[in-house]
Amino acid sequence: MPTVLLVRHGRTEANASGVLAGRTPGLRLDRRGHDQSRALAARLRNIPLAAVLSSPLERCLDTAAEIIAGRDGLSVTVDDRLTECGYGEWTGRALKDLSRERLWKVVQSHPSAVTFPGGESLRAAQARAVDAVRERDAQVAADVGPNAVWIAVSHADVIKAVVADALGMHLDLFQRLVVDPCSVTAVRYTDGRPFVIRLNDTGDDLSAFHPGRRRRRRPGADATVGGDTGTP
Prior knowledge:
The protein is α/β, with parallel strands linked by helices and 232 residues long. It is 33% helix and 14% strand. The chain has helices spanning 13-17, 31-44, 58-68, 95-98, 102-109, 122-143, 156-167, and strands spanning 3-8, 52-54, 76-78, 149-154, 184-189, 194-201.
């Protein structure tokens, strides 16, 4: 079966400043985000791509555009089902303020019960994104063959939800996953079961994991709604 590379968009100013961007229109990659996208495109240069799907939000389209640059005949197809979770009234607010909301604790421990005020449930976001990925994967297999590789550019919480489905994890466990800006997560769907081939691969060397260089995180730190700025 084909391999889908789930790519999170590059960094934005909202990511860097700790704001939950959600579906805010007009939000583009910042300078770091463009650098990340170009580096990712270079890593993918020798891999033939059967298709590139993207969330309709600009930060994903910017990332996808870098990926297909110089690839004749390859274009980006927008699938609205890959868009960011609808955070409703949380959109545009600082994460440090949101962490004081009662709902924040539910997002951390019982996300399958969460519907964001004026927005979407995490269960609904997972369902439509999984449907989008599985349907396109089947189409790529039919059109190109079982060895094809294709890309879906989306958002941290959406990718985490798709990966949770592929791993057979309950959505309540998806906060255990980390998806960094411009990371690659590879999934292969077979008739028997999906296989997660790679998770949150940014292509960095491992020196950042040296104990003397790691950022300190308080024990029991919460997962960042909308995605973190990068690990470790």
